[in-house]
Each structure stands twice: as C-alpha cells, then as structure tokens.
Amino acid sequence: MTLTAVFFITISVFAHVGWNLISKSRQPSGTFFLIANTAALLLVIPLLGYYRSVFVWVPSAVWALVAATGFFQTIYYLSLAGAYRRGDMSLAYPMLRALPVLFITAVSFILGRGHQIRPFGLLGILMVAFGCLLLPLKSFRHLHFRDYLALCCLLALVAAVGTTGYTLVDDEALRQLRTHFHPWMGYNSVTLFYVVLQTLSIEIWLGLYVLLFRAERNQSLYVWRKDRVHAAVAGIVLTFAYGLVLASMAYVVNISYVAAFRQLSIPLGAAAGMLLLNEPRYFPKLIGVGVIMGGLMLVALV
C-alpha cells in the first residue's frame, strides 16, 4: 500500500468509529439512517450542479452498479441497526468489520485477481480476520459456536455481506469511471462524482424501505424529533469517511488491502465500546486486538 492510501484510510477509520459510536448510542433504525443519508445528500447536492454536464456521459453499466451499491449499502445499514439494537458494539462491530476481509479476498481469487495479493499481504489479511473472530469470545476455556449464532452476530454477518457487496461494486464502478473519463477528470474528481451518485442511490433504497414497512413509518416522527441531530452528524461523518476510502482505492493494486487496513477501526471500536460504553473487557478481546494490529502492519508494509 502507498503512504497516500494509508493516510486516507487512517483518517477514515477514526471517523468510522465516531459515527458508529453515535449510532449505537441512539439505538438506530432504518429511519435513523435515512435521516443520516439525507443530511449527507444535502451536503453533496452542490456538486450536482458542478457535475451536471457529466451525467449524460455515464455508461449504462455504471448506472447498474450505482443501483447495486445503494442496495448493498441499505442491507448494511439495516443489519447494522438491528445488530446495535440487540448487542454490544464490541461484539457486533468486530464481526461485521472482519468478515468482509475474508469475503473480498475470496472473491478476488475467484475473479482471478489473487495473484495481485502478495504472500505477506495475504498473511496479514488472515491475521486480521482471525484476530477479529477472537474479539467476541469471553474465554478461551469455553469456546462455543453458538456464541456466533446470537441474533446480534447473525445480523453482523448480514451487514458484512452488504459491506462486501458495496466494496466490490464501488471498486468496479470507479475503475470504469476513471477509464471512461480519463484524462478529462482526475481520480479525486471522479471519486467526488461517484459519492454523489452513491448517496442518491442509498437515499432511494432507504426511502423505499421506510415507505414500504409500517413499523418504520410509525416511528419516523419519533426518530425525527429525538434523534435527527445525532443522525445528521453521523451521516455527514460517515459520508466523509467512506469518501476517503473510495479515494484510497486509486492508490492500491488490490482492494483486499483496503478492506484489511480499514480494520484498524476494529481495535479502536472495541476500545471505544469498552471504555466509553462500559462494555465487558474480556481477555480474548485484548489478544484479538494484538493479532489485528500485527496483520495491519503486514498489510501496510507490502
């Protein structure tokens, strides 16, 4: 990974932990994240005018990818909200951040891109995944598979699938946009343009969900009155954080490195949960953090 990629992702992970703390503290729902995304959309709306002449030149294949990323992002937000309502941040957060590393690496090999991942990079990715799976354990003496079958864990698994989906889709969409608009638009400009498209897509999918499900509609006014400020702040921060992740994709040979190094947020998130939310501090969590940091160092050095 280049220093530019490391710099972008490091800033993004601190922001990521921040908006997750805000969300967890408010017992989030689909409506919460719709408000969050609406705030982000209002933030990027001025870019619509700036890029208005570019829209007509976007390839149809990219529009399909834009629709797909909105769908996967919605799956992620809804599952994340459910996991946070039913369990600790220090349990759900590590799982939903760890599993995409394995999923994305597996897909890279399936798509024939596995040769881009160097041996030490692959070792680092595996260490990250293994360390993250240690974090939910209470004791090494009592290892129970059923601990991972709790509803909180299952929802975190679904959120990880959503993360894998939108990460792969975003990587392909950005590759196509950079190729299509080169040399008229630079990498950072293409990234900003894509953030606009992505935010619009998420707004549509989340809006449809809230409209179609009565439970969400019934609590919309309550969430608006109680949590709109927290949701708006979370939305702005999360859009900034993921924008940096998208920008970093231009500076790595394989997005598996991005997916792995983003896991720096896991020890930070676990620490935030234990220190700020007073969640249990089990010994396996501390060991898992050490394994993760070792894996991240390997990923950063290759």
Question: Could you please describe the fold and organization of this structure?
Answer:
By secondary structure, the chain is mainly alpha-helical. It has one domain (3-301). The protein is 79% helix and 0% strand. The chain has 12 helices and no strands. It has helices spanning 3-25, 30-44, 46-50, 60-86, 89-110, 119-134, 151-181, 187-212, 214-248, 255-261, 265-276, 283-301. Helix 2 (30-44) packs across helix 9 (214-248). It is globular. The chain starts with a helix and ends with a helix. The model has no long low-confidence stretch (mean pLDDT 88).
Short description:
By secondary structure, the chain is mostly helical. It is built from 12 helices and no strands.
How many beta-strand segments?
A: 0
Query: Count of helical segments?
Result: 12
Proportion of strand residues: under 5%
The 3D shape can be described as: globular
Enumerate the spans where pLDDT stays under 50 for 5 or more consecutive residues: none
Q: Order of SSEs, N→C?
A: HHHHHHHHHHHH
Mean pLDDT: 88
Helical fraction equals over 70%
Q: Output the radius of gyration.
A: 19 Å
Overall tally of structural domains: 1
How does the major sheet shape up? none
Q: Cα distance, first to last residue? A: 6 Å
Structural class: mainly alpha
